[in-house]
Design brief:
It is a single chain. The protein is α+β, with helices and mostly antiparallel strands. It folds into two domains: about 5-60; about 70-175, Up-down Bundle (Glutathione S-transferase Yfyf (Class Pi), Chain A, domain 2), CATH 1.20.1050. The protein has ten helices and four strands. It has a four-stranded mixed sheet with strand order 2-1-3-4. The N and C termini lie far apart (about 40 Å).
Length: about 220
């Protein structure tokens, strides 16, 4: 049984938003602590977790359903999330440096979304089916920032992802997020990230194992 959850969270942080949405979907109350260096880390009964994948596995080990219940869907979506995490580690810092021009990193990012588009064909309105699930909360913070930190989708580009983004924006968990951010706040946060030295930014770009990744 979980006794205490502390989430280190700052507005604008992708990892912290993933954690907040997932914990809210489980109805798990968490104490929020503003900490730039640790943002996106959650502490459960004294143990730190630095990705929702780590957190989910731990919760399931104590009997709390987190990932899809159906085995094949669970395995498929976990692999999708792990693969996307690894890709983002390599390109996210470059991808967000220009919200006007489509640089090479942005093209790689868009290609990485094709597998999510296909997964929506399988699953329906949400990756969780009729309602948002683990993969919805995993991906949404990235997609929310398209057009803010990066160039916007083109008309007719990844149309299912675009429609899904509109639905997610209207979800109660997203609307009531305690650190819900405006476009101007996201732009301000991106500017702050760009001004940070590479070694500081590396702290904010943790992979699913919690290892630091150098630029």
């Amino acid at each position: 049984m979980i006794r205490e959850i502390t989430l280190y969270s700052t507005p604008g942080c992708v990892y912290a938003q993933q954690m907040r949405l997932c914990l809210a979907s489980l109805g798990a109350p968490a104490s929020l602590v503003a900490d730039e260096a640790l943002s996106g880390t959650v502490n459960v009964d004294g143990k730190n977790f630095q990705s929702i994948l780590e957190l989910g596995i731990t919760l399931e080990n104590i009997g709390i359903q987190f990932f899809p219940e159906e085995e094949r869907k669970r395995e498929r979506q976990l692999n999708i999330a792990l693969g996307f995490n690894q890709r983002m580690i390599q390109i996210f810092g470059v991808m967000m440096e220009d919200n006007v021009h489509r640089n090479e990193a942005f093209h790689i990012f868009m290609e990485s979304l094709a597998i999510f588009e296909n997964e929506l064909i399988r699953c329906g309105r949400y990756f969780g089916g009729r309602a948002p699930g683990f993969l919805d909360f995993f991906l949404f913070p990235y997609i929310q920032r398209i057009g803010v930190w990066t160039p916007e989708f083109l008309k007719g580009e990844l149309v299912r992802i675009q429609a899904w983004r509109r639905r997610m924006k209207e979800e109660e968990l997203v609307m009531t997020d305690v650190h819900k951010t405006t476009r101007s706040e996201l732009l301000k946060y991106a500017k702050q990230l760009r001004q940070m030295p590479a070694e500081v930014r590396a702290i904010k770009r943790l992979n699913s194992c919690g290892q630091l990744v150098e630029d």
